[in-house]
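Run log // design_07
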């Protein structure tokens, strides 16, 4: 791997880490505030409408943004014609959705959904424009600028949603935040990119962009049914109120994987695309990255499973008890949701988009069929079916990523040994401390905080004793190197 690329990757990791530190508390706080200002049915109406938009988005823009990042060489004229096609098609799809919004009643039997869907339709060209501008920054590996854009837009969009909800805006508070996020990303990234007009030129480069983009669009459209097929089934079979409970539980669970996935998409995918011919590097990255991902997210799975009741009561407040069991079930999938995004970064970087689409198709079928069957047991049954489908999908993607990177299955499997020990330690200490504190009658927030602290204390103690045998060489060396640099700087 070239030194300048390694340096860019480290810079991207630092800025993405800063983004997580800023945005994660903000998202959780926004979710907690909105849960107290809006009722579950309003969340369900928004979730029902936005699923239609999310399904249309990759098809309407042909996923040109991913194609721009993945291409090795690209002329400005080729970017111009591909961008023009993406913006034109997304605008046409937006008009089509707005004119036929009432047809959604065939799927969701709720009179409020068509109005919200009509209002969300123009977000398609806005999302396409924002994605294209950010894709140029990703292609340049301008990670600092990317993180600043996302942090500012996310923060102001969250403030807007809370503000509209405070004045009684209801479901439109969610719509306002959804739009403002895209508008700010366009405005802020435009200043960074400073795009120039070029005469469009259709040639082999554009055909390559469209081929990759169509393959990625197919994959993302299938991924829609994998990520939102359960929403569709719940909304159409059980109604908007159960969908509101489920969507909030799902959003809580997917917050950390979503942010880590964005880091992988913004940082690792461009870096892997630059090194797509180096199978040795990709294989090593797959193994080390998987071990690090597992070590960081498996404790979250344990805490979510054990402390689900306390977390829901603390963050969402009273009236959200029906979200507890789905949250606990979905929390076990935090690692899988993060890991499959890491594997897909390598698969997409090497251009195997159609092979990934096959995996997405299997995942989508399993989610939809599982949700239909699981809906007989309510949203908890849907959550269990979704978790099982996610496990199968993760296995398929890792098998494909190992094949394209040349990593043996045995070497990949060994990456899970030490993180599994971390998971068991956190699970045992959290369950034991929770059972004791519940008996003492402590408040939910105090139980949750204390159980997390007990788990962290156990991990610190074992780290001192086992060193890299607990965390793996990569994470242990990163922490040790950070401590050494701080000591050399006189910070300790």
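design_07 sequence
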């Amino acid at each position: 791997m070239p030194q300048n690329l390694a340096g860019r990757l480290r810079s991207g990791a630092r800025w993405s880490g800063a983004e997580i530190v800023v945005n994660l508390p903000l998202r959780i706080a926004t979710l907690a505030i909105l849960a107290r200002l809006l009722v579950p049915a309003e969340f369900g109406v928004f979730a029902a409408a936005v699923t239609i938009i999310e399904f249309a988005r990759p098809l309407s823009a042909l996923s040109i943004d991913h194609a721009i990042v993945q291409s090795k060489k690209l002329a400005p004229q080729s970017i111009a014609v591909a961008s023009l096609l993406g913006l034109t098609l997304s605008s046409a799809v937006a008009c089509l959705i707005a004119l036929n919004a009432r047809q959604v009643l065939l799927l969701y039997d709720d009179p409020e959904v068509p109005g919200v869907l009509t209002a969300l339709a123009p977000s398609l060209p806005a999302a396409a424009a924002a994605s294209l501008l950010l894709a140029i920054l990703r292609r340049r590996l301008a990670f600092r600028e990317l993180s600043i854009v996302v942090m500012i837009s996310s923060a102001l969009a969250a403030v807007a949603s809370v503000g509209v909800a405070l004045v009684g805006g209801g479901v439109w508070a969610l719509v306002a935040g959804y739009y403002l996020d895209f508008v700010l990303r366009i405005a802020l990234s435009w200043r960074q990119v400073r795009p120039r007009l070029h005469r469009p030129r259709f040639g082999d480069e554009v055909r390559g962009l469209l081929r990759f983009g169509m393959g990625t669009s197919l994959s993302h459209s299938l991924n829609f049914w994998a990520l939102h097929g359960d929403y569709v089934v719940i909304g159409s079979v059980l109604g908007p109120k159960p969908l509101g409970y489920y969507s909030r539980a799902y959003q809580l669970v997917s917050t950390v994987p979503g942010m880590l996935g964005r880091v992988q998409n913004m940082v690792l995918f461009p870096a892997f695309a630059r090194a797509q011919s180096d199978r040795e590097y990709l294989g090593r990255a797959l193994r080390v990255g998987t071990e690090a991902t597992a070590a960081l997210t498996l404790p979250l799975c344990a805490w979510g499973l054990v402390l689900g009741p306390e977390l829901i009561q603390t963050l969402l407040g009273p009236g959200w008890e029906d979200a507890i069991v789905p949250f606990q079930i979905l929390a076990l999938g935090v690692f899988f949701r993060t890991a499959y995004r890491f594997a897909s970064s390598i698969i997409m970087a090497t251009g195997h988009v159609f092979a990934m689409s096959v995996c997405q198709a299997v995942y989508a079928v399993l989610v939809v069929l599982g949700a239909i069957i699981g809906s007989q047991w309510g949203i908890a049954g849907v959550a269990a079916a979704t978790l099982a489908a996610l496990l199968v999908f993760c296995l398929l993607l890792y098998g494909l990523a190992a094949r394209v990177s040349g990593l043996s299955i045995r070497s990949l499997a060994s990456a899970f040994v030490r993180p599994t020990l971390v998971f068991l330690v956190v699970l045992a200490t959290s369950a034991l401390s929770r059972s004791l504190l519940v008996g003492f009658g402590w408040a939910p927030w105090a139980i949750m905080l204390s159980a997390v602290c007990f788990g962290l204390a156990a991990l610190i103690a074992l780290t001192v004793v086992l060193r890299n045998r607990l965390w793996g060489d990569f994470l242990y060396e990163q922490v040790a190197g950070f401590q050494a640099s701080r000591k050399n700087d006189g910070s300790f």
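The chain has two domains: 3-415, 416-492.
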